[in-house]
Amino acid sequence: MSAFVKSKLKTAREAIGRQDYEKAQEAALGVLEYEPENYHAHVFLGIAYMKLGDLGKSEQEYHKALGINSTQVLAWQGLSQVYEAAQKWPEYAKLLEKLAHLHATSNDAPKCAETVQKLIELRRDERKSSRLELAEALSLLLPESPLYATLSTLPPPDPTNPTSTNIAQIQAAVHNSLPILEELVSIYEQEENSVAQNEIAKRRTRLGAPPLDQIHRDVTLEVLSSSQLPRLYDEVLNHPNTSDELRRATEAKLLRTKQRHLFALPTTAQYQESKAQLAAEVEKLIGGMVLLKIPDELAWSLYIESKDAATLEDYDFGILRQYMEIFYASPLAKLLRAYFTYMAIPLGEEDEEEDQAVPEPDPDVDYVEIMIETFTDLGDSILAHRIIAELYEQDADYENAIKVSESGLELVRRSEENWGRPLKQVKKAFNVGLATSLVHLFPPKNHIRALRIIDEVLGEDPDNVPALMGRGFILQFAKRWEEAAEYFGKVVGLEPEDTNQASRAKEERAWCIAMCGRHYEAADQLREVIDALEQLEGHEEDKARCWWKLGRCYWEMGDAHREEAYKHFVTSLKRSPTFAPAFTSLGIYYSEYVSPPDPNRASKCFQKAFELDPREADAARRLAEGFAEEGEWDLVEVVARRTIVGEGGLEEGPEARASRRYLPINAWAWKAVGAVELTRRNYVAAIEAFQIALRTDVDDHMSWLRLGEAYSKAGRYAAASKALEHARELKPDDWIASYFIGEVQRQMGQYEEAIKAFESILSSRPQELGVLHSLGQTYLDLGSFELSTGFLGRAETSFLSAVRVSLDLLDASSGFRRVAWKTIADALFHLSGFADISDDGLVRETLARVIPLVTDHPGTGLADIVLYPLSVDDSGDLSRLALDTALAAYDYRLTLGAIDDAAKASAYYDLGSALSTFARRTLDGTKRERAQQHAIAQFKEALRLEPANDAYWVALGNATFLSQPGVCQHSYIRAIELVGKNAGTWTNLGLFYLHHEDAELANEAFYKAQTLDPDYALAWVGQGLVATANGHDREARALFEHATTLTATVPEADLEYATRLFNTINKSTSTSRSASQEAFLPGFFVLDRFCKQRPQDAAALHLFGLVCERIGHLQLGIDLIGRAITVLEAAYEESEDPVIERQFTIAHTNVARLRLSTGDFAGALESYQVATGLLPEQPGEEDAEAKVLLAQCQFGSGLAHFKLGELVEALALFEAALVSAADKPAIRGHVIVLLAQTLWAIGTDEAKESAKTQLLQSIEYDPENLMAINTLAGMGILTDDDGLVDAALSELLSLPLDQRHERDPERDVTYLLVQHHLGQGEAQQARSVAQKAVYAEPARTDARRSLAALTLRSGAPAAALAILGSPESRAQGDFAALRAALALHAVALCVKARESAPEALRLAQKAVVLSPWDKQAWEAVAYVRSRAA
Predict the structure, then answer these.
(1) 1312-1333: string of b/e by CB count within 10 Å (b at 16+)?
(2) If we measure between CA atoms, which residue out of 829, 805, 798, 832 comes closest to residue 819?
(3) pLDDT 10s digits, 997-1053
(4) Rounded distance, CA 153 to CA 431, Å?
(5) Which residues contact 813 (CB under 8 A, 6 or more apart)?
(6) For 503-512, 554-563, 812-821, which range has the lowest pLDDT when averaged over its residues?
(7) In the beta sheet, which residues pair with residue 657?
(8) Distance, CA of 620 to CA of 624 (rounded, Å)
């Protein structure tokens, strides 16, 4: 180092000492200019920069110094000061740790201690560090730290002078690390607990997260796999300064940590070794704690619960006594004390050693109840489950024993999973208990499951006595007596003679021998068992059972031994008065053997047996049979249901339901329950009962029959059909099954099949009344269905058949009069709705059979409505006669009385409905009023008898709709309260609100009806009316259109839709003639349907005729309006109503116009004359309609005369029409045009000039008379008078385009101009006019066709095709436009290229198929073929 550098460094050091940092900076920089790698110069410069406040440059200089020499501490110390000043705490902490290591390397213990102390103080500040960072800093003081060797050289702290050094804390920690260890334990416990809680909370919220217990296991495994706590706990335990209290607490923590880790480890092969090692560590811990009697309840519980004991006696009672003593108040200790006392086990070891007599349990203490109550707090204790399961099994509470055993097996599974080793003996003990309980609980219901468990136990332990006994009992119930005897014999060989199991095995072996027919041998063996039992105290139940079995052996020996058997039965009851089988046997003795039989004593015995044990099925069946013979069906049900409970036929739960996997022993009980439920109309319960009964005997014909009946009455017709078909297969000659099948087919709407089924029965049993009634009802239902679908002729035949069959029923018996007359009346009521009767003779014949039956007993209530006596001969209107006869039949049905209120209410309702219909149809106002009032009275009477029937309330509302609004509204609302999901009722309420102009409420009601039944057409009609009331005509039309498309047609919807469609199209100015014809087609179809249903509706017939006129069916229109005229004429003759007269006049006017169109001028003239005759010669100003009609009649008559060549008369009538239509510009314009055409037709120049004058005057009078303008322009074209054409069209052409189109909706002006230019030979000008029309309205297909035709004429087929577009694109638009353009497209395609002839021919043929009446389409086909030839 040069002298210059040394001097500069000295200057810098001195300047720093004087705090002249600028000079120090200057000196250090001078050194670095001369020697850039000078370590001290960088350090001095770093100090200067730091003191001058430039921490960034200071840090850089220190880093440069460290790059030169990283082993010296000066730069490290300076950099630490920079970081501290800059508050860069992470970097500061790392630097302190580095400095500590440097001091340790240089064996500078005080400096190292100071640095560590600074680091620990920094880490203790929670704002600057975390808990784990503090733990890392504290770990530097432990023996395993690399700093410990240096720090351990520090002297111990001087307790007399603690301020003598500033590193006393470090000195204390190095010489006693226990406080540091305790602090580290606390830090890691908090940290791991916090991490686990946060991770669990986060994972729980994930989609598809596993169960919470699995999340806990996963998180515990992750946390404890890298935990520092076990190591720290070991260090605390091994520390010499650890107190006993701290040692116990730490041991407890270590145990819990390792136990949690052990239980969290999976049982997979990957963790098998580590799990076994950890399990051994835990066992060592708990073994030491138990050995030292440390009061850690977890350790003791783990020790006891993890023991693999075959029996309860294999548990170490000494350990259990210590547990009870140490943890006296714990639930398990309470349970063990109660168990020891109950089982007479000494509670103290000294008592057991001294062989003192165990005191008897306190009789006032219920030890069993104590154990059961305590058990609720021991849900995780295997020992508690074993004790309670054994307790329940001893008390024969097998149901609870099964539950506890199953819960115990789950605990064993979890324990095996937790410990990673099997508990074979514990698992076997639970399985044996479970199997034994399953064997004896509702045998043989659970035997399949029990057998699986027993086989598993015997596979491991072939000599297991309880399993062998269970197998023997299962074989007994299966009646495999020989095999069962072998198993019981094996138990006898395994068990000592004086044990209960050996005694029971001998007894059951003897019973099996008896059931094999070796009664004497069995009796001898039973006597041996009885002799042994009689020597013992108690065992009363066993004694009674053996005496009863002995009695049964003697009973089976024959009549000579029956009395001895009787004595044994009595002895059995003396041993145990509650032994039910003995009572059953005594009952059989009294009912079958005693002479004479004693049914009373037998019944008492059976009742006693059944009361004691509902499993006594023989007694129960005999009781039920006795009750059934006496007609006590409620008692039959009680007995049957208790029998079902006794055999385990019901599952547990809040509602006792039949077991799903259950084969009944006593099928008769389920049949009885099914029959009772069927009579009570509890069809679901009946179905279930019959299904269970059929599990035992699948070929029981009667059960299948009853099941099918229950299915049908429950509305499950498909299932009913299958069940009944199966019943018929089992017994083909049983007509009842065929009858029920027919009923099901009728309910399913398969009327034809049902009729065949009933008629096949009647062919062999013609007087079967129920079948006759069902056949009549089926014909009635079939007729109603055919009527709703529009098959009127078929419906008429079906209704007549219903009447005929019902009359046959009346002839066969008078017992079915009420239902027969209802069927007859309903059928006649439906017939009365037919406007046209197709088979008059058959209807008259049928009515002739019915009328004498109802008129011989006329009711008193209809005398002022129906004209008695009724006669077929005096009536020309069969529909009216059918209605009168139906009324008389309904009235006669009331005189027959009724079985109950419901039937009588139905009769009143039917009569009221018929009267309401009569009131709507009659034209006699007096009778209408009487019928309406009488109908209301009938509905009220029906409601008095059955107020909960919503249909009666609806009928009353309909009857009072106009006359009594309050009653009507109340009725509808009451019906909705009863049945809120009836769409019809909501619709009626909506119509009521609409009638009273409350559109909002009406709309809500209609919307509710649509929600309940979207296919209920009348609700859509109602909403359409609401839309009309709100002025939403477009929406209204859409709603009516939707209503007409629904399955169940509503005639009113058809008529309303057609009326609105007709009015809409008539008012439209933007629809072409061809398009309007297409638009009328839906109206044509719905009116056709309506008129078939209502052929006497004059308004519909009239409208239908007008629609036919618009679509070109003129002759059909004439026929329809002619029918309307006939109906109106008949109605007018009956009522002479002026409104009907005016309708008659309008109809004649319209039919005359149609006749004009067909060329029937004379007929048209006649109709006009009729109409004119009904109109006043000079209508008043107030009768504007008459003026219009008169002008039309004069106008039409003039046209007829003109066509007949009578020009003078025609002109006179035209002039008269002009006078009549003076204030009607539209009509006057039509008359003037026709007058001008007539004058033009005369042919003289004078007449032609007069025609032009008339038209010019008309245009001057009415400039918007487009017809006159077009006619005048046409005259100019015909006479080549360009001036006349310009004069006619100039004003129209000068108008703006929208106004021009408004006045000329059919674009006649464009057509005239094109024809004018073509007539003048100006083809280019004609195309120009057509092009302008297309530019103005490119969407109009008629304009495009016109331009395409002109283009094709000019020899440009490709351009014509481009204008027309592809057929596919046109198919997306108007069908009429597609049809009209096909022929033109075919011709253009053919002209363009000869090879396109096949495609052109296809299009031309398609045009013919779509429009066979179109001459141009045929011409196109001929042209294309000629071109292709």
Answers:
(1) bbbebbbeeeeeeebbebbbeb
(2) 805
(3) 888 898 899 899 889 888 888 888 888 888 888 888 788 878 877 877 776 667 777
(4) 67
(5) 767, 769
(6) 812-821
(7) 651
(8) 6
Q: Which H or E run includes 686?
A: helix 683-696
Closest CA to 1383 of 1297, 1360, 1369: 1360
Compute the distance between CA of residue 21 and CA of residue 50 in angstroms, rounded to an integer: 9
CA gap 427, 411 in Å, rounded: 10
pLDDT above 70 (res 659): no
**How open is the CA angle 1235-1236-1240, to the nearest 5 degrees?**
120
Residue 433, φ and ψ in degrees, nearest 5: -65, -40
* pTM (two decimals): 0.60
| 804 pLDDT above the threshold of 80 | yes
The C-alpha atoms of residue 969 and residue 995 are separated, in whole angstroms, by 12
Dihedral sign for Cα 1127, 1133, 1138, 1141, please: positive
Which structure tokens are listed for 685? 């319960």
Distance CA 929, CA 334 (A): 89
| Exposed/middle/buried for residue 248 (C-beta within 10 Å: 0-12, 13-18, 19+) | middle
Q: How far is CA 943 from the centre of its chain?
A: 36
Phi, psi of 657 (to 5 degrees): -120, 155
How far is Cα 26 from Cα 521, in angstroms, rounded to an integer? Answer: 129
Over residues 1212-1270, the pLDDT tens digits come to: 887 887 777 777 777 777 777 777 777 777 777 777 777 777 777 666 666 666 677 77
Distances, alpha carbon 399 to alpha carbons 265, 395, 651, in Å: 35, 11, 11
**Pair 737, 727: CB distance under 8 Å:** yes
Task: Give Cα separations from 58 to 34, 50, 88 (angstroms).
Answer: 20, 5, 14
Average pLDDT over all residues of the chain: 83
Segment (H or E) for 1183? none
Q: What DSSP element (H or E) covers 84?
A: helix 73-86
Contacts of 1114 (CB under 8 A, 6+ apart): 1108, 1154, 1157, 1158
Question: How is residue 185 written in tokens?
Answer: 């334990």
**Which residue is listed with tokens 């045929």?**
1418
Of 1240 and 238, which is predicted with more confidence? 238
Record the tokens describing residue 19, joined without a space. Answer: 């705090």
Residue of 402, 377, 406 lying closest to 392 (CA atoms):
402
- Report the distance separating Cα 57 and Cα 60, nearest Å: 5
CB 1033 within 8 A of CB 1061: no
For residues 1177 and 282, which has the higher predicted lDDT (pLDDT)?
282
Q: Give strand ranges (E) for 118-179.
A: none
Write the DSSP symbol of residue 1044.
H
Neighbours of 161 (CB within 10 A): 9
